[in-house]
Every structure is written in C-alpha cells, then in structure tokens.
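::Encoded backbone::
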Amino acid sequence: MVLALLGALLVGTVSAQIYIPPVFGKDSLDTRPDELSRLYIPPKRIMWVSHDSLVQNKEVLLLSGNGQPELGKRNMCSMYTCGRDTASILLDYGRELHGGLKLVLGAARPWGTQLVRVRFGESVSEACSEHDGGRRRKGYSTNDHAMRDITMKVPSDGQIEIGNTGFRFVRIDLLGSDAVIRLKEAPAVMRYRNIPYLGSFRCSDPRLNDIWMTGAYTVHLNMQEYLWDGIKRDRVVWLGDMHPEVSTIMAVFGYNEVVDKSIDLACEQFPLPQWLNGMSAYSMWYLIIQYEWYMHNGNLDYLRKHRDYITGLIDCIDSCVDEEGNESLAKSRFLDWPSTPNEAGVEAGYRALLCWALDDGAKLCDLLGEKGHAAKCNAIAGRLKKQIKQPNRLKQAAALMAVAGLMEPERACDEIISVGGAKDFSTFYGYYMLQALAKAGEYQQALDIIRQYWGGMLDLGATTFWEDFNLDWSRNAARLDDFVPEGKDDIHGDFGDYCYPGFRHSFCHGWASGPTPWMTRHVLGIEVLDAGCKMIRVNPHLGDLEWAEGTYPTPLGVIYVKHVKKDGGNVVSTVKAPDGIKVVSK
C-alpha cells in the first residue's frame, strides 16, 4: 500500500492573525479561534448503490467541487425512493479521516427538506450496520463518544455539514417515500492540525515505510484540540495511552503544544491525591512522559510549572510502599486490555512500570533541584526491588521488566517475548516488547514482528492502526474495505473484547503507533543523549535492510541520516546535523 497521506496538503503554514469582526467589540465576547484546519475531500470510489434506477449519475460525486449549491439538476446525482424501495449509496474516501460529511444539494421533490440517514464507518461493515441501542453487542455499532449513525433533514438548494467522528466510509439512505434529492457534492470534511511532517523514514523495504507512515498518520489524526486516544471512540485525554503517541510526535513532528496542553488538562482534571484518569499506572506514565518530553525539548520552565505535581505525586507513591516492598497504590492494576486476565503477570509488570517511573522521577527531581525527592524516588525503588515478581509468561510484563532493569533483556526475550514471534503482541504494549527486543540485540526479530503484526493490519485494509489486533483474527477474515463474503469473518464486527466489542472497536488508536518511533530510534539509530537534543547518538541497526534514511526534528533543526550496507555487511553512514548539536556514534 502506498500512503500518500494527502501529500502536499499536509504542509506547514504560517499562522495567520485572527481578526474578530468589530461588531463584537473588544471585551463583549470571549472568543476561541479554531486551532485546526479543514480539507474537503471527495470520495475515491462508489462502493455500492441500492439500485442503479434509484441512484443515477452517481459518478459526479467523485469530482472535486466548489461547495456552492446551484439551481436545477445539472451534473448532480439523483436519489429516488419509490414506495418501499430506498435509495442508498456507500462512499469510500480512501483512508481513515477525522471530521464529518458535507452535502451540497440541488432541488428536492417535493421541494423542501427531506429525511436522510447518514452512517459513518471505519469499515464497510460498520457503515452498513445497525445501531445497538446502547447494549454494546457484537455485530452492532454504537454512537459512543461520537455520533456515527444520524437521521436528519437536509435542505433543498443548500448545503449542510454532518458529523464529527473517525471514518473512511459513509452510507447515505434517503428515507420516506416517493421523494427525490439531488447531490451535487458529498465531500468528507477532514479536520486536522496543519503541521509539517518534519521526521521521515525510508528504507529498502516498502512495507516498513508504509508501517512507519501509518503510525505517524494515526497519531496526527488524534492531535486535535488535545491529544486523543482515538478519533471515533475515546476522544479524551488518557495519560498512559499518550506515551506511544508522544514518542511518535517527537519522531515525526517535534515539539507541539498539544502535548503540553494535554498533560496540563489531565493534571487539572485529576488533582493530587487522585491518580491520573483514576488509574495509578497512568500517574506512573506521567513521570515517564515528562522526562522524555523534557529530554527532547529541553524546556525546563515547563518542568518547573509541574514541580509541585511531580513532587506531590512522588509523596503519594512513597506513602503507599512499605519497608518490605509491599505497595498499596490502588486495588486495580492495569497495563493494557489483553493482559488483564493474567493477574500475576499484570502485578509483575505493574511493579516494573513503577520502578521505571521512579527512575525517571529521580532524574526529574535532580533537574528541578529537588534532591530530597530524587533520593526518595531511589529509596522507594529500592524497597520495591526487595520483591521482584515473576512475569508469569506475560509478554507485557516481561517487556516492562526488561526496560526497567528488573530482568535481563536476553532472558525476557528468550523465555517469553520471542516465544511465538508476534503471537500475543498487543497494539499498545507491543511498543515495549519491541524495546525489550532491541535491548536484547534482537533487531532482526523485531523487524520481522513489525512486518507481521502491524503489517497484518495493513493487509486487512487498514490505513491507521487499531485499538487492538490479534493475528488469530486474520485467519479467515475479509478486508475492512470490502463486503464480507459468505463464509468469511468480519474483521471489525466479529472480534474485539473488553470495552471494544465489534464495531465499538476503534480502528484509529494512537497507542498503536509504536513502530514509528521504534524504527526512528533503532533502524535510523537516533538517540537523544542531552536535553533539547544538544547531543545525539547515531547507531543504526539495519537487520536485513540494504539501506535506510530519514530525518528527525529537534529544537535546533532537522537532523538527516542515511545508512547504506556495503559488501561484507559494513554500514556507511551520512549524518547532517544543525549547528549546536553534537553527534556521537556508539
């Protein structure tokens, strides 16, 4: 799959000054300009119509329009209902988008408003599914978080915009009887943050190129006013889920205010002594994100703004860990959804995550001059390490233990993570499994798993990465971008579990973007050694690749690297870095 990703449309622009009409006065109205941009994107193909006699001249909808209604019926798609025969059309916009639908209409018969049903879908099946009435049943869709099944009136000789959700497909049904509407245009309205892709990745394997860009695009769609978890469902700030997204933002976009805003909002919504999002593990992720975000951007003022929250959180954790290493942060432990049945493994991984967070917490406190709290972090971690739990064959737990230094990476991979290859990987914690493989020197295996697991979603028609994916689902599954043949499984409607059964399953979830920062870090070999990217190590690991090149955004400018494997396996590297950045190797 070739991902153009809107090509030249996704380029940076200089922010224009916002002018407020003088009739409002300077102080009479609180205003908030829209931070995001909009694109009107015509459908790429007509997937299906109920009957050619009921939907005529449909091809005009594939053309770019001007958004202006016109009198008459020239160059318009006509939709008819006759008795019980309903006019329906299914449109494919080519890839996952965030936003809604604009209908530009001509004259209706009878003249006036007409009733239509509009269904948005991340898959063909979802766009054609029935609403579940709030019961969350497999095979049925929901309106949770965002309306995707809407019945409403549309005007004659006018235009209307409908919906705000994540989708690729739209089905339009003309309801009522003996009615006609004429559609001049039906573009998707894409709402997105207009920022350039400063980071890039290309290599000798097009599949890996597609995976890198799909992860980047997945996160870009979730960079709305705040950094969301998903664009169809989970349109809120989940601090823990942000970590892979922030890692991707650093590799692709560099600094962006959406991260600061989202961290700030989460802390406002969950003041201490509450855990962020009501989940103790997500407060651990807060410390990890803060440290990595600081190392990339070097913004000490932002850390100082969070000084009291950081030290207060460390005090909360300290009060919950006794001298023997028993901890009582919260009754509920959460890593990710697929790991939840393995309670012993989750417990081991949870404690490892806490040790990782405390290590980063100590570094944050050193930066802030809070030596007492830095020592407190180290002391808590020392108590926790008196009781190192076993991962109980859980890949998520073994990965965290390897990253946190509680388990030799080689052992974690040989005994658990590498067993079965991509089997039991998850979209969220797969990132940390890949990190553990890198720590063990298993770069080739990591690349193979990326191709199989994340590439497996692409093979099923994905243009963004999903909330969850299990390779077993794909054994007899049809692609998401076509109707499901008899005897095949519906990859969207038939699977999913926990909070995401069936069509509630999000097909654009930022936490699934891990391969993007992983390939930047380990294939391109770019590692930040000093705050603000003032010192960078470049140490590539090409595995079976013949070459790789790319860019990495820093506060001082964009770094370019290229690595070419020569005869005998030696790699020759070219590195171009802006002034002010020191580059070291190995």
